[in-house]
Amino acid sequence: MFTICNDSHSDFILLGFSDKPYLEKTLFWVILIFYCLTISGNLVIIFASLKDPKLHIPLYYFLSNLSLLDLCFTSSCVPQMLVNFWGPEKTISYTGCAIQLYVFLWLGATECVLLVVMAVDRYVAVCHPLQYTTIMHPKLCLQLAVLAWGTGLIQSLIQSPATLRLPFCSNRRVDDIVCEVPALIQVSSANTIYNEIQMSIASIILLVVPLIIILSSYIAVAKAVLRIKSTSGKKKAFGTCASHLLVVSLFYGTVTAVYLQPKSRYAHEKGKFLTLFYTVVTPTLNPLIYTLRNKEVKGALIRLVGKERDSTKGITAWKNVDHQNAFTFWEMSKETVIRGPVDLALH
Question: Counting CB atoms within 10 angstroms of each CB, which of 15, 133, 178, 285 has the fewest?
Fold first, then answer.
């Protein structure tokens, strides 16, 4: 049974790094720069993917979802984080904390599933190139995207209410930079064993299992790449896979370290720095690693800039695009498929 508190809906205090004010001032500017890069990089990806017909293929459809996800994910916590780091005021209202918790869990869980979907997409492209367009058809891609967003929402609707129902009578000082489950469990005055078990089960389902699937997919991709005779092709493919795995490792590694630790072992300082990584650093790296270093995206941006310079030609060109049949651009030509696994893996 939970203890009844008269001030159960009072404001919380996000302590952050309040014991190190010099560090908070530095982090403010670092996070602000990263946030601006995240916003601009992901908006460029979404804009290019929507406007350029050559990017209307499954890979960029999922990357657009990831960019939208990163925009929302960082925006759910970074503005409040910047406010807290800039001044002495560290409070967040109960309602604000609840909204942040719901959105934070929803988008975090969605990214876990979406990264799996993207890894599977690359596996199909590399290991089954001739069946790629048949397997990854538009309807399936839409269903996979809905699955990712829906799974995250269900996870949030299950775990967030269970966390917010905890009493916070004696302590409303949250030793963290955002309202997330481990930190709120830590300050509750009740027995939180049920919440800890729930968090551990959710972490295994949404972190450990997806990570295993992703690593298995890339192992299969690596085996396919090893069969390529071209040395330069191997280096390029392995370089791309290593970059993708770096982003996956940063996200899953930091999130797992925070959410799989039981309450008694939750290290506050370590947990706050890990949270900074998956809320600020990873969303900034995603567009750099996955897309902006890609030749197809660079080409799309050059074409879009060229159309902006010649407005008349640009308007004429876009009028010729049948937006109702945008998914038809997903039908890749036989030449694209026959290029083999290396080219598909690199895009």
Answer: 15
What is the reported pLDDT for 112? 92
pLDDT digits (tens, 9 = 90+) for 40-68: 989 988 888 888 777 788 888 998 999 99
Cα angle: 62, vertex 67, 71; to 5 degrees? 145
Q: Which residue has the higher pLDDT, 231 or 125?
A: 125
pLDDT in tens, 125-175: 888 888 888 899 999 999 999 999 999 999 999 999 999 888 877 667 888
The pLDDT, as a whole number, for residue 35 is: 94
Distances (CA, A) of 164 to 101, 104, 298, 313: 9, 14, 45, 55
Q: 56 CB contacts (<8 Å, ≥6 apart)?
A: 49, 326, 327, 329, 330
CA distances from 250 to 148, 268, 272, 283, 315 (A): 20, 19, 15, 10, 42
Distance, in Å, from the CA atom of 29 to the CA atom of 39, rounded to the nearest integer, reads 15
Angle, helices 311-319 vs 295-309, to 10°: value is: 120
Using CA atoms, how far apart are residues 233 and 230, in angstroms rounded to an integer?
5
